[in-house]
Amino acid sequence: MTATPLLSQLTHRARTTAHAHAATCPCEPGGATLTDRPDGTVVRHADTVAKAHAPHTDPTELTARLTTAAHLPGILLSPLDPTALHLHDRLVTLWPYGTPVDPEDPDAAPWEAAATLLARLHRTPVPVPLPPMRGPRKALRAITRLRAAGPHPAAIPVLRAWNLLPAWARAEAPQPDTTTLCHGDLHLGQLVRYPAPDGPWMLIDVDDLGTGVPGWDLARPAAWYACGLLPADEWVRFLATYRAAGGPAVPADGDPWPALDVPARALTVQTAALAIVKAVTAGRPLDEVEQAVVDACERMGSVPPELAPGIAK
Fold first, then answer.
1. DSSP string, 112-133
2. Predicted pLDDT of residue 29
3. CA–CA distances in Å: residue 180 to residues 86, 114, 117, 183, 251
4. Would you state the torsion angle of the CA atoms of residues 83, 179, 119, 35, taken in this order, to the nearest 10 degrees?
5. Which residue among 25, 46, 146, 148 has the highest number of C-beta atoms inside a 10 angstrom radius?
């Protein structure tokens, strides 16, 4: 793959930063590209990671998110510098490298660590003024991409389920909670061990950080469980740990679904929409997992959120 000017300069910045604070660097030329997508490019050199954020990222909002991360050590990985750089019209941030979750070892997935970190995040007073958590906006962006992909039979139940969501979950109205600190895009790829390789788990990626409905941060595992994609024992462990840590998104006991149903539905719709876009782009049918999420949207479309005990299981 030919390096773009942005990728080349991002790699250079990561290498320069890594060499500046290390007496020796067991590095290889070029470093490693971890992610290279239109909405974000991430490269690593030794113990330093450089990230180019999505085009048109608001600099004031990003600064507030970086400042928040710097104020919450032990919960959020702190940036090496709370001030973003500018490279090729993109905002760039620098971070220490942490060991990610191993996707090849699902039995070692750190569900308890994720739940504890979320509970601590949700209980923490917002240290600086923050914009709203961006989860609903990301769901809307997925629906926009689905509509742009053209007609597809599977899109019908997905759009029907989307239209049944309340306005706040579709990013058409303010969220009902405007004070709770939320991650906004919680999944296992958002955890790393720092210091690498075996330090404590921490949350990464501040792009969607903000105030909002804390149930959104529990919605992806809740949706996977409701769709049959996450074993019940892993969901129970995650939920029990979150409650034991004093997480405010759900009641301390009893049925959690009244608090989780709308966010879980929204994340299911988002996942299904992106699955269809991916399949259309590749010119292939939906795979088994993708079809399961679309089927969940089909069930959701027949039962309004206010009547359903969790994604119309």
1. HHHHHHHHHHHHSPPSS--PBP
2. 53
3. 30, 17, 14, 10, 15
4. -40
5. 146
DSSP 95: E
For 257-274, write each residue's pLDDT tens digit: 999 999 999 999 999 999
CA separation for the pair 307, 313 (Å, rounded): 12
Q: What is the pTM of this model?
A: 0.91
State the residue for tokens 């804390």. Answer: 214
* Residue the block writes with tokens 């004070």: 179
pLDDT value at 85 more than 90: yes
Supply 260's token pair.
């989780």
Whole-Å CA distances, 61 to 57, 76, 131, 163: 8, 17, 7, 29
With a cut of 50, say whether residue 1 has pLDDT above it: no
d(CA 44, CA 308): 45
Q: Alpha-carbon distance 264 to 216, whole Å?
A: 7
Cα(70)–Cα(49) distance, rounded to whole angstroms? Answer: 16
Q: Are strands 201-203 and 191-193 parallel, antiparallel or unpaired?
A: antiparallel
Reported as a single tens digit per residue, the pLDDT across 18-28 is 888 665 566 65
Judged on CB neighbours under 10 Å (0-12, 13-18, 19+), 73 is exposed
pLDDT in tens, 296-305: 999 997 766 6
Q: Which two tokens stand for residue 89?
A: 């019209």
